[in-house]
Amino acid sequence: MKNPIFSHRTILFLILSILLSPDFTFAGHDYTDALSKCILFFEGQRSGFLPQDQRMTWRANSGLGDGWTYKTDLTGGYYDAGDNVKFGFPMAFTTTLLSWSVIEFGDLMPPAELRNSLVAIRWATDYLLKTVSQPNRIFVQVGDPSADHFCWERPEDMDTMRTVYAVDAPGTASDVAGETAAALAAASMAFRSSDPGYAETLLQNGIKAFELADTYRGAYSDNANIRDGVCPFYCDFDGYQDELLWGAAWLRRASKNESYLSYIQDNGKTLGAEDSFNEFGWDNKHAGLNVLVSKEALEGNIFTLQSYKASADNFMCTLIPESSSSHIQYTPGGLIYKPGGSNLQHATSITFLLLAYAHYLERTSSTVNCGNVVVGPASLRRQAKQQVDYILGDNPKGISYMVGYGNYFPQRIHHRGSSLPSVRDHPQPIACKEGSTYFNSPDPNPNVLVGALVGGPGEDDVYEDDRADFRKSEPTTYINAPFVGVLAYFAANPGG
Fold first, then answer.
1. So where are the chain's domains?
2. Most confident of 2-16, 272-286, 426-440
């Protein structure tokens, strides 16, 4: 047998020479830093009276009169994106995903970031509790979006109508009430160990919200008195049925009550559990529902839930490029892409599902049969890591799509508070149309909204740092929320 050309010692010497070369840079990301910033972002979206420990100090109090037309307190909560409206539908979804992040991956978070995550959840749930505080009524929105979008002004200066949009039974709001039930149930699990009293309050109000959703079935945007206020912004495009199943599934997981198990068993087909399984976001919960319910199907070996697991398996197979059933579109640089703008909302939510499902498969020593290939937890995590690293800078433009992370990130995001001088630097009010000067300015935003994930690049990986291009440059709470759990996983497992 001939001796190898290089000995093991020689190969080791060559590797060390390359690694120690001044031209070599270690690849990888600081996922812990990204996690901290991802959570911090939510402080920049706060509405209401800000606490003394507010870290995003360029923000100040806003929306302090919210709810006065109904003689009720509707202060607090989050602005959904770069505007100054509190949309209940995406806020509830954001809360559910923040809570799910803590439930699945909170034990991997540094203690300080777990605490900050719970603070971020509570800022939302304190508000959501107010929205369901009156019998047979749910408050679904605060702020006239048409008037708000006509202006470019700081939340602290708002002088547009703070219209309150409420749905009273027998008016229908199964989507918002169902998602609110899911949010409160999930949050009750997140708080169970640290604040059991608050957790029980959340759970009981989640049960009430679900009863409202299920008793009076229909979409909230079908109500003539609020339709013009919620559409086309957060209109229910995909139906309310998925939110009923989603709310019931979360109440089942939080309460262990058999009635909710029966609900998702008995109503799966009639409420379309097997429809549109390749979508997950504020309007369509199908893929997330299937992954969530699959946990119990896998761990409890409940045969009557196998259809949910089958749908979850099918969804995972669509994401694996080497699978014969792969049909999710990717950009040339490797980012999950779905048409319609604000694409990172799909990338972050789907990445979260990849990691959550990998978690469930690993705990039950299971795999997914994708026809020509068998997929296990490691494969799903590789797909997830590719998305995370792309978002943090490993992409054709070399840009981090998280504001404040890395050396090159968006400077001109579509966000009123970030793009206008803060009240500390400019105490005088900036009126509705006076903000146009700042909107049209080529200068970077004066206030850095640290941790904000923007809408992201188009299908060709192209991103122009353009404030006016809101589909690409506007951050939203529901882009960030699932990314909290994703980053918690990779902060603890940087190699994937």
1. 29-490
2. 426-440
Peptide bond into 232 cis (omega under 30): yes
Residue 328 confidence (pLDDT): 87
pTM above 0.90, yes or no: yes
Choose the catalytic residue: 286, 346, 359, 414. 414
Q: What angle do the packed helices 111-131 and 88-105 form, to 10 degrees?
A: 150
Identify the CA nearest to 185 among candidates 112, 132, 137.
Answer: 132
Task: Read off the pLDDT band of 277 (50, 70, 90).
Answer: low
Residue 12 has pLDDT above 80, yes or no: no
User: Do 139 and 88 meet the contact criterion of CB atoms below 8 Å apart?
Assistant: yes
Q: Is 195 a catalytic residue?
A: no
Q: Catalytic pick from 104, 242, 283, 474? A: 474
Into which CATH architecture does domain 29-490 fall? Alpha/alpha barrel (1.50)
Q: Which of 148, 156, 242, 465 is catalytic?
A: 465
pLDDT of 27: 54
Q: Tell me whether residue 53 is one of the annotated catalytic residues.
A: no
User: Does residue 474 have an active-site annotation?
Assistant: yes
Q: Tell me the β-bridge partners of 168.
A: 137
Task: Let me know: does 54 contact 43? Beta carbons within 8 Å.
Answer: yes
Of 9-18, 91-100, 106-115, 150-159, the poorest mean pLDDT is in: 9-18
